[in-house]
Request: fold
Amino acid sequence: MGESSLEKRPLKEDKVWTLPFIMVFINSVVLNSSTWAIVPLMSSYCVEIGAGLKTASVVASLMSLTAMFLRPVSGFVVDRMNRKKLILITTSANVVLAILHIFARDIRLLAVCRVLQGIAFSFQGVAMMAFSTSFLPLSRIGEGMGWMALANVISQSIGPAVGLYLKDTFGFYACFIFCAVVCSISLLIINFIPYKEEKREVRRGKLTLDSIISLYVLPYAMICGLFSSCNGLDNTFINLLGEERGITGISVFFTAYSVVMFLARPVSGKLLDRFGLDYIIYPALFSTAFSAVLTGSARSMFVMILAGIIKGIGQSSGSPGIQATCLKKMGKEKAGIVSSTCYIGQDIGNSIAPMIGGVVADRWGYQTMYWGYAVILFVGGGLIYRIKSQYDKRHEAQQ
Reply:
């Protein structure tokens, strides 16, 4: 009686693209696009309502900082709540918050809105990733998680572009209204997804360190943080690098990266399911590090496009492969804590890398910054994975 709808369905073909999973995928793209549409507008919106540049930068970062600190708690909650209901709650909050941005003409009220947005974002991302596992056969979970990660990539490409277009064409309010409408559409989509809550052994229990952060996943989360640091550096400095070196049309870098990610995700997921993480992680580390070397050395658009292509190959199998492997090891019932622990690493990478990179770039230039990151990623990531994987193998052999 406690079986999920997935467990009741025959899985003879082990399909990934079932109707429920397609709906979850579309909902993830739609909902995350609305969130990312607002992000690039925050600094300029703060300045427009009277804040100084320093205050504007702090308010603009509040969503990400709040989400980072709440990731551990979100994993604990996701593993104990009905995941569909939690997504409905956070999506409804996003509708209200998008509208509140229109009336937040005081910087303090806007800061509160961004903190509340961060709370909703932290629970929403973990819940959506965990929810998707309910519609994936365990034998294809690597491929399925790769597609869900791709949904995040698509939304991070579509959202900012749409947000900036609406702001430049119709003003800030048009973007906020758009986000409210999009979140409302997301509510309709999620309502039509058939889901029966799964019985999970971890539903009861006190809030302890083990219930909010997986110590098993933590070393892997550190590697995810190293991978996401590349995104933090690129998102912050690519445009500035292009201006300094006279490389026009620098946004094509992101286009090449996104296209390769789209093509490589399903392939890397299938390779992971067939051969395991050992055969995936080292090429991913090397590809991402090499892309950083090319970016730091680039003096032409051709090299930038090549860097984007190689980065797409590496990132398509790095963090998604780690997360899928951890889910296989710990089981779907702990998908929340696995996802939240991995997200902690990614949030730290996205937040810390640009700050450190800014200091390095200001003193020694972009080439030193990117080359230094490449060494840290390949050497540091490789050592962490080597030590962790050997420890796990010895531990399993002793059991």
